[in-house]
Design brief:
By secondary structure, the chain is an alpha+beta fold. It has one domain: DNA repair protein MutS, domain I (MutS, DNA mismatch repair protein, domain I, 3-Layer(aba) Sandwich). It contains four helices and six strands, in the order αββαββαββα. The protein has helices at 2-8, 27-36, 57-66, 119-138, and strands at 13-18, 21-25, 41-44, 47-53, 71-77, 82-89. It has a six-stranded mixed sheet, with helices on both faces. The longest helix has 20 residues, at 119-138. It is globular. The N and C termini lie far apart (39 Å). The model is unreliable at 108-114 (pLDDT under 50).
Length: 139
């Protein structure tokens, strides 16, 4: 569902509720980690997510507006099996990732692996992680 909503809303950060949380996945999650510092969690080694409690929606919406990123928030009613747009904002920035070296192989430490990691992708992820650490030490 999230992938389809991201295709439909290209250029916007897409949120949808899951229980008592709003979630963003994939490149939207990585972008939110970069611009707001939300903690990335991995659904699978290749798929990141971030989330926050439903009652914190306005707080995070304001922060995204301050950064001038476009977003759309959906509420999925499980009983009716319907989606409703809760809020949206057309900002100056699309949902392009600032630092393309972030990925779920870097953030997967300590989580359950759903499949055997690819040694080549892990090597690239480790390279990115080392470069990021060097950049942080130089700042």
């Amino acid at each position: 569902m999230m992938e389809l909503l991201q295709i439909k809303n290209k250029g916007k950060i897409v949120f949808c509720n899951a229980g008592n949380f709003y979630l963003a996945v994939g490149k939207d999650a990585i972008l939110l980690n970069e611009i707001l510092g939300l903690k990335l969690t991995c659904l699978k080694p290749e798929i990141c997510k971030v989330g926050f409690p439903i009652n914190a929606l306005e707080k995070y919406a304001e922060k995204i507006v301050e950064k001038r990123y476009s977003y759309i928030v959906y509420y999925f009613d499980q009983q009716k099996e319907e989606l409703e747009v809760v809020m949206q904002y057309e900002g100056e920035h699309g949902n392009k990732i600032i630092n393309d070296r972030n990925n779920c192989y870097i953030y997967s430490k300590g989580i359950q692996k759903y499949k055997k990691p690819d040694k080549y992708i892990l090597a690239v992820a480790n390279l990115y992680k080392t470069e990021k650490e060097k950049e942080e030490r130089n700042d």
